[in-house]
Amino acid sequence: MTHLQQPIAVIGATGQQGGSVVDALLAQKQAVRALVRDTESAGARALRARGVEVVVADQENGESLRRALTAVAALFFMTTFEGADGTEGETRRGVTVADAAARAGVPHVVYSSVGGAERATGIPHFESKHRVEQRLVEVVPAKFVRPTFFMENLAPQLADGGSGELVLRLPVSGDVPLQMIAVRDIGAAAARLLIDPDAIDGNAVELAGDELTMAQVADRVASELGRPTRYEGLPIDVLGDDEDMRAMFQWFTTVPAYQADFDVTRHLVPDVRDLAAWVSDQGPGARRD
């Protein structure tokens, strides 16, 4: 097992994806430097308690990033389009991180993008992530993990607190196959590439641990939870005027939409979870029957 001399930097370490990367790196005894806006937040204090170096940096402030990225072995980051400035802000922040990493001389970067980012989907938050990818390629050695549908998107519906029939709902037909990945496995794949960027050919991998229709998802959930479960497809209009989400769910129906490499995913994460394993992992919190 490779142990890098310098710490690996993680932006977003107090969040879902960044936290999964931290977990995977710490499990391999790798030193981690978390870049956070507030070093005294509860999340930052929890990271310090686990032995993580915590430093202040802001994705809107290139100089703070450059300082925080000095003398690191690698960098993981992701971007989000949430907030008032939407996808324009996402691209701006991603480019700021890329440029700061280049100025700091970061040896290589792993960026968590999205499955299909490179395929001109027209989905706004896919296109913004692709623009970040393009900037990274211009300025620093980079690898891209492109996750498919997050299994965690289903978690709120599994934990509905009831004891009768469980009904899963999304604005997509129940017979459309959907590739999916657990966040834990995104973190594991990213950690592998942070430590060994030559673990894949090329500069990107689309990640998935399972491919199921939503009707099949309901069957798997019923089997794992021991609770009657069915799927109910919703009309796309439930998304209202959210053009980004409408575009994504419409894209799901253009099979194949996601085009994950299951073999390479398993190469990076030998114990990658299928949906049944992920549901089982949810434990008592998902079993409120």
Keywords:
single chain, 289 residues, alpha/beta, Rossmann fold, 7-stranded parallel beta sheet, 3-stranded mixed beta sheet, 11 helices, 12 strands, 18% strand
Structure notes:
- The model is unreliable at 285-289 (pLDDT under 50).
- Strand 2, helix 2 (42-49) and strand 3 form a beta-alpha-beta unit.
- The longest helix is centred in the N-terminal third of the chain and has 19 residues, at 86-104.
- This protein is 40% helix and 18% strand.
- It has a single domain, classed as NAD(P)-binding Rossmann-like Domain (Rossmann fold).
- The chain has a seven-stranded parallel sheet, sandwiched between helices.
- The protein is α/β, with parallel strands linked by helices and 289 residues long.
- The protein starts with 7 loop residues before the first strand and ends in an 8-residue tail after the last helix.
- It is built from eleven helices and twelve strands.
How many discrete domains? 1
**Low-pLDDT ranges:** 285-289
By CATH, the topology is Rossmann fold
| Biggest pleated sheet | 7 strands, parallel
In spatial order, strands of the major sheet run 3-2-1-4-5-6-10
Mean of all residue-level pLDDT scores: 94
* Sheet/helix structural class: alpha/beta
Shape: globular
- Supply the CATH class: Alpha Beta
Kindly state the number of beta strands: 12
N→C terminal distance: 43 Å
The CATH architecture? 3-Layer(aba) Sandwich
The number of helical segments is 11
Radius of gyration: 19 Å
Write the element-wise H/E pattern from the N-terminal end onward. EHEHEHEHEHEEHEEHEEHEHHH
Strand content: 15-25%
CATH superfamily: NAD(P)-binding Rossmann-like Domain
Share of residues in helices: 25-40%
Keywords: NADP
InterPro entries: NAD(P)-bd_dom_sf, NmrA-like, NmrA-like_oxidored
Domain NmrA-like: 6-259
Family: Belongs to the NmrA-type oxidoreductase family.
